[in-house]
Amino acid sequence: MTSPLHRLPAVSLAELQAVAELQTRVDRKYVVPLPTLGTLLEQLDPGTRVLDVDGRRTFTYRSVYFDSPTLTSYLGAARRRRDRFKVRTRTYVDDGACWVEVKTRGPRGTTVKERAPHAPEASATLTEPAWSFASTVLGDDRAARLDGPLRPTLVTTYDRVTLHVAAPDGTSSRTTVDTGLLWTDPATGRDRPLPGLAVVETKTGSTPSPTDRLLWRHGLRPVRISKYGTGMAVLHPDLPATPWRRVLNRHVDPHH
Fold first, then answer.
1. Which of 82, 142, 153, 172 could form a disulfide with 20, with the two C-beta atoms 3.0–4.6 Å apart?
2. Is 206 contained in some domain?
3. InterPro entries attached here (predicted)?
């Protein structure tokens, strides 16, 4: 994966945020075998740029997801509720920055992400300021459905490369490439990897990006995979998991 990425021109974090922050967006996710990923990266439009911070182009992420005692967030996703949500902390391991993030659903299937700074040493805790922020974003209706305090239910770690993709019509989008995904149960320490596969996600406005079209040409189609939902289903096979069943059956070793 390194070679084609290092041939691409760089984009700074400030510029990426200025031209393609896309906090409200359409997300399309793909599960891509690593050998196929190498071929795809070779065929990216040469105008594609890769996020570069101090010469580093691959960044380690650690996310802690929080849910209620009866898994309101998870079950909302599993049952495809329109008012589903996720609450997590995300730590950028390389520089130690940490945020609390809340994802909700916007109109026409868009994803809306809002975030606030969070103390890195408290990444596994929803501090009082973090809960105040999260509950404000969730609103009274969602908060009323919670049957108790949010607690950590899943940890994900992975390595991410972020691409800035400019379309011929002048629109900008982002593509993220996640490898080395590991799901961990914070209560027991039990974990499961997703070996040999990358999760590629395009984050666009209303129209598909050049990355989507490249993936489609290679016969790859968007799939339902949620790092939280799929990870919980992998570690807790007794949970309902209809939206992610195809990915689980096709890509996750049931005998691991």
1. 172
2. yes
3. CYTH-like_dom_sf, VTC_domain, VTC_sf
Q: Which residues contact 3 (CB under 8 A, 6 or more apart)?
A: none
CA-CA distance, 150 to 125, in Å (whole number)?
9
What's the chain's Rg over C-alpha atoms?
A: 18
Write out the chain's pLDDT in tens, 256 residues: 446 787 899 999 899 888 766 556 788 999 999 999 999 999 998 789 999 999 999 999 999 999 999 999 999 999 999 889 999 999 999 999 999 999 998 877 778 889 999 999 999 999 999 999 999 999 988 888 898 999 999 999 999 999 998 877 777 889 999 999 999 999 999 999 999 999 999 988 778 899 999 999 999 999 999 999 999 999 999 999 999 999 999 988 655 5
Q: What is the DSSP string of 90-134?
A: EEETTTTEEEEEEEEE-GGG-EEEEEEE--GGGTTS--HHHHHHH
Instruction: Tell me, yes or no, whether 25 lies in a domain.
Output: yes
Which residues constitute the domain of residue 114? 2-251
Domain count, the chain: 1
**Amino acid letter, 106:** G
Is 68 within the bounds of a domain?
Answer: yes
Helix (H, G, I), strand (E, B) or coil at 231: helix
CB-based burial, 35-53: b 16+ in 10 Å, e otherwise: ebbeebbeebeeebbbbbe
* 101, 114, 170, 189 from 106: Cα distances, Å: 15, 12, 24, 34
- Global pTM exceeds 0.85: yes
